[in-house]
Specification:
8-stranded parallel barrel; homodimer; alpha/beta; globular; 19% strand
């Protein structure tokens, strides 16, 4: 299901192709986040026009609203939301541990109260896999225990042990036709824990492996370290997915560290605050500097927003609260993330990835605002 | 500039064609409201796909934000917002009298405080026409005095006298190349006042005539009466525009009373509350009845929303606060208004307008919710 097409000299970057029931995904890939069955403010036509290959849905959120009765009656998530291309579903583990009020962690899952109405719910490996089977996603994720990055060594160990046990339970559950299941490696920044967790999951023979416990508010060096100590223990011939990451420069750095798949709420989240991503970093389109700037957000961008609207107009729309403003920034930002991965793929194929990475990271100046938004994005 | 192509037997309905610098407008026509330079939540491509021929902009709002320096630097409103088809601009009279805090009504305009930041501004015939010239709209409206429908006879008379005097001033101002100017008839439901105002404006030879002082919170019978007592005094060979109206059934009734042009915020405004217009009246898509309803909003609708999404999915989006929900209802509702006018035009051409009107109004059951929203829309 995963073909490794090219590797890059002098880095760990990989060019691959993942075949799913709903089509092919070229990697490295940025996956847009559609937590509640919609990539925020963007419609499916716009997503396809900007080159989106695969989107995310979320078990926890979709299970609560609209509920599985409705999605089952619709014939699965693809039908319900009218998205014919691949979908990856997160298991809900992250959300149970970050959004919900946990009542009790039990042997086979977590009893928690919904963040919405406080109703008592239970989610564990069996339930998460059943929901994902009914959602009919192309890639399902195991139900893991994702602790805060500030946890104690004892807490990290307990989370890894639970994650490994739950992964084995997930592995035994039935799947939707053709559905792949990815394991999730936890373990903080402890190399032994990460290795132990990775090896235990690899022994279970999943279809791909994710690095979890990143994008949970940790400083950037810890995030890179978590990836660096995990990646060597993952099989070369299967896809690797860094969950919840990152900025464009972080994604390029993670491609160089052997990661194939990314998802992040940043492009649409910061759009709603008027922030646009460019090749040189992010800019606040609301700034007075753009009030008579009749250039597109980014001169050489091919997105719908850049082909049709100026910074001055988008600034006006954002300042008066017109939805078209945040819509167009969401389109542009998503295109910027998707395009960065297109450029990375081309560079790997051409054997120029090392130069691409060097130039990209040198030109890209991350703003504090976006880094803070990334930290806050842990409530996704 | 206006060609009267067909008239309907047994009603006053007319099929016309208005030629403007940015293209032809087939009448009767529904014009989408883009007060601040954007039809709320809908993009220009979507507007064109759903058959929008002309949109509105607003002098008062655009003058305050982004301000004329920026729109002038952009080369006018069409360029600024990237809308290549016709634009009609309202003069700001209605907004000054409904939104702003009036400080003093003077001989040549109104001194008022901005509803946004309280800054002191002045708008009169000369200023309103200059702004509209710089906006470069295809149709400019005169600066009128639009009193509340609860005004006294003395207040209505004063408003009409001021409106006539200001109309004469507007008539003398320079225009953008090819720009048309429409007069606005005031006078409440007093036949003598309406006649006097209409005749005075017609003597000034405007390019078209609007009926103002409607959609200001008055009961529906008063609205129809204001139109019925005004229309006979307007030239048959020029376009007539009922400002701020109405529901689909009201528009059909007004076409039957000889009106050619309409604008209303209803389609996009009620969309943001989850209300969809259909041929049978409006429905609240958030209602539990639609939770497993996998039909489109309206079975025979050709809009983007109805071609792609179900009621169940749109209900979910609205309930979880996803922007795509209100976007798609805005698209559908606008299409429903535009299509009603397409159907009216075809019926006039085919000589079947009387039947079309009878069937349309008989099938259309207005909801109290929408009628209240129309009343509230007086703050447009």
């Amino acid at each position: 299901m995963f073909d490794l097409l090219h590797t890059a000299p002098s880095t760990k970057a990989r060019r691959g192709r993942l075949t799913t029931p709903h089509g092919v995904v070229d990697t490295p890939v940025f996956m847009s986040v559609g937590t509640q069955g919609s990539v925020k403010a963007v419609d499916p036509r716009e997503l396809r026009e900007l080159g989106t290959q695969i989107i995310l849905g979320n078990t926890y959120h979709l299970h609560i609203r609209p509920g599985m009765d409705i999605i089952r009656a619709a014939g699965g998530l693809h039908n319900f939301i009218n998205w014919p291309l691949p979908i990856l579903t997160d298991s809900g583990g992250f959300q149970v541990f970050s959004l919900a009020t946990i009542r009790k962690i039990k042997a086979h899952g977590v009893e928690f109260r919904s963040h919405l109405d406080g109703s008592l719910l239970f989610l564990g490996p069996k339930e998460a896999m059943q929901i994902q089977r009914e959602l009919g996603s192309d890639i399902a994720m195991v139900f893991d225990d994702c602790p805060p990055h500030t946890s104690t060594p004892r807490e990290f160990r307990a989370a890894v042990e639970r994650t490994m046990r739950w992964a084995a339970e997930c592995r035994e559950q039935p799947r939707a036709p053709g559905q792949m299941v990815f394991g999730i490696v936890q373990g903080g920044i402890d190399p032994h824990l990460r290795e132990e967790c990775a090896k235990s999951l690899v022994a279970l023979k999943f279809d791909g492996y994710a690095i979890g416990g990143v994008s949970v508010g940790e400083p950037e060096p810890e995030m890179f370290r978590a990836v660096e100590i995990t990646e060597p223990h993952l099989p070369a011939d299967q896809p690797r997915y860094a969950m919840g990451l990152g900025t464009p420069a972080q994604m390029v750095e993670l491609v160089a560290r052997g990661i194939d798949m990314f998802d992040c709420v940043l492009p649409t989240r910061v759009a709603r605050n008027g922030t646009a991503f460019t090749r040189k970093g992010s800019i606040s389109i609301k700034a007075g500097a753009y009030k008579s700037d009749f250039r597109p957000i980014e001169e050489d961008c091919d997105c719908f927003a850049c082909r049709h609207f100026t910074r001055a107009y988008l600034r006006h729309l954002l300042n008066v609260g017109e939805i078209l403003g945040l819509r167009m920034l969401s389109v542009h930002n998503t295109r910027m993330f998707v395009r960065t991965m297109e450029q990375a793929r081309a560079a790997i194929e051409n054997g120029t990835f090392a130069e691409f990475r060097r130039d990209f990271v040198a030109n890209y100046v991350p703003t504090q605002k976006v880094l803070l938004a990334r930290a806050a994005a842990a409530d996704r």
